[in-house]
Specification:
318 residues; 11 helices
Length: 318
């Protein structure tokens, strides 16, 4: 019987058994990762550099992009390296770090999406009080609270998970260290404590979701009272990206953790893990920039500026 103290490494789930398919997964994940880095990096740079984007909505969007960068960087680079080198191993501290960072970033993103719903609620339902309720200090405090709650959640889950005795080997049935898969390695009479902690986490996420739904109920009621069709369309356009991001986040998380055990299988679990850990960080920048003219203008100016600076730099060597 082995326990957590005797395990020095875990074995992650391989995407494929043949080198050709492993190389295919390497290039696919590398492309997705680079696209996510570029998209989120452009969003962060545009918001930081252009004064017209220094508003509460874009401040929270900057934090969302940072969280997305962190979450996709926690899982995908290791998966890329494993596919390239045909290696499944991850060290015990590395696995613990993955669990901590992923829970930290995903939990913080859940709380931040709730804060962003409050931002939209105040902007549409209480526009005259927007500057008072969402001043710079209040925005910093709310963003810090989201990050802090994520950190506390990560400490609690990581400490509980890795204090359990592991009696079922060291093979994790996932391409990264995921708490439900690690719990499968624990002794049958020891995992209930962490299951209870996971239940508390699910209740917190459900509470955030209920708050978002109630907020949008008030927002839609306020929209219906806007006299002009143009005003209603503008209000809806500012809410649509956030609604799309929340829907993507919630749907993938629910399917990952609340799907019936009867339909669970290693290949399906792998697909679901990709959906909730890789797809949202890659798509969120596209969702927010697709119909947002201010973001589009800032990104156009940023890319044009970088291109012109690059041309000047190359010409200086000519």
């Amino acid at each position: 019987m082995s326990n957590g103290s005797s395990i020095t490494q875990f074995l992650l789930l391989a995407f494929a058994n043949t080198r050709e398919l492993q190389h295919l997964h390497f290039w696919l994940f590398l492309g997705i990762y680079l696209a996510a880095l570029l998209a989120n990096g452009l969003i962060i740079t545009a918001i930081a550099c252009y004064h017209q984007l220094h508003t509460p909505m874009y401040f929270f969007l900057l934090n969302l992009a940072l969280l997305d960068l962190g979450s996709i960087s926690t899982t995908v680079p290791k998966a890329i390296a494993n596919s390239l080198w045909d290696n499944r191993a991850i060290s015990y501290p590395g696995c613990a770090a993955q669990v901590f960072l992923l829970v930290f970033l995903i939990s913080a993103e859940c709380f931040l999406l709730t804060v962003m719903a409050y931002d939209r609620y105040v902007a549409i339902c209480k526009p005259l009080h927007y500057g008072t309720l969402l001043g710079s200090r209040a925005c910093v405090h709310m963003a810090a609270a989201a990050w802090g709650c994520g950190f506390l959640s990560a400490v609690l889950h990581t400490a509980n998970t890795f204090s359990l005795p592991l009696c079922q080997g060291n093979a994790v049935d996932q391409f990264f260290c995921e708490i439900p898969q690690i719990l499968k390695l624990s002794c049958s009479d020891a995992y209930l404590r962490e299951v209870g902690v996971l239940g508390v986490g699910v209740c917190l996420v459900f509470g955030c979701f209920v708050y978002i739904v109630l907020s949008y109920g008030q927002i839609f009621r306020a929209m219906l009272r806007i006299p002009s069709e143009q005003g209603r369309h503008k209000a809806f356009s500012t809410c649509l990206p956030h609604l799309a991001v929340v829907s993507l986040f919630v749907s993938t998380a629910i399917f990952a953790y609340l799907k019936p055990p009867s339909i669970s299988s290693p290949s399906l679990d792998l697909l679901v893990a990709v959906l909730y850990s890789v797809v949202p960080p890659a798509l969120n920048p596209l969702i927010y920039s697709m119909r947002n003219h201010e973001i589009k203008d800032a990104l156009r100016k940023l890319i044009t500026r970088c291109f012109s600076e690059g041309i000047k730099f190359l010409l200086s060597f000519a």
